[in-house]
Write a structure and sequence with these properties.
By secondary structure, this protein is of the alpha+beta class. Strands 1, 2, 3, 4, 5, 6 and 7 form a 7-stranded antiparallel sheet that branches. It starts with a helix and ends with a strand. About 5% of the residues have low confidence.
Length: about 140
């Protein structure tokens, strides 16, 4: 009986840990269009380099992983994509399937504290994670 309780508690703990990690990732990163393929559904619909994908078929996108999951789960002829262009939201309707775009996942801008210091002789720093650049 004690083993069953122990494994149940362990399972709940691991499940909660994985769930919290996924929620944190979804809230923390942005998916930006960096370039387009020769044939690109999202470009033809009005997408531009620098646009940030914030919704895909009514699901909030906070990482490439989330976008991949949403795209794999949908087999529809048309999807609605909401982009962030500057401070404006742009809504596009594109055919289901490949977006025809190269995407980059990065951490959004951060606010620095008042006592932040610029260190001389260090080149530009990017919030780009550098781990995931994908074609969808």
């Amino acid at each position: 009986m004690n083993r069953i309780i122990f494994f149940l508690i362990l399972f709940l703990f691991l499940s909660l840990t994985l769930y919290c990690d996924e929620v944190t990732q979804q809230e923390r990163y942005e998916v930006e269009i960096t370039s387009f393929a020769e044939i690109s559904a999202i470009r033809e619909a009005g997408g531009r380099v620098g646009d940030i994908i914030i919704r895909y078929n009514d699901r909030e996108i906070g990482s490439l992983r989330t976008l991949l999951e949403v795209k794999q789960g949908k087999d529809t002829p048309e999807v609605e994509v909401v982009l962030l262009r500057g401070n404006e939201q742009v809504i596009l309707t594109i055919p289901g399937g490949d977006l025809g775009a190269y995407l980059r996942e990065y951490a959004p801008d951060h606010e620095f504290s008042d006592d932040a210091v610029i260190i001389p002789d260090i080149g530009p720093v990017s919030w780009d994670r550098g781990l995931r650049v994908s074609y969808l």
